[in-house]
Write a structure and sequence with these properties.
Blueprint lengths: L6 H4 L17 H11 L7 H20 L7
């Protein structure tokens, strides 16, 4: 179940939840540290280079199904 990104599902698997990192999630700060240590020459900044694209993907996903969303 660790491949699932939904904490509500992950927490149900008590045998593996929290074995990789606290809550099976990685903060942006910890992820940035990992990137800085593993790929120092790439100069990747999560907030500048990744977060805008993540937000765009989330918006595009909602817009793609907006007419199918139940509006009760």
């Amino acid at each position: 179940m660790t491949h699932l990104t939904n904490n509500c599902l992950q927490v149900k698997d008590k045998s593996t939840f929290g074995t990789h990192e606290v809550g099976n999630t990685v903060s942006f700060e910890l992820f940035q540290k990992f990137i800085d240590e593993e790929y120092p020459s790439e100069n990747v900044n999560i907030e500048e280079h990744m977060l805008p694209t993540m937000k765009d993907i989330a918006i595009d996903t909602i817009l793609a199904v907006k007419n199918q969303i139940n509006q009760k």
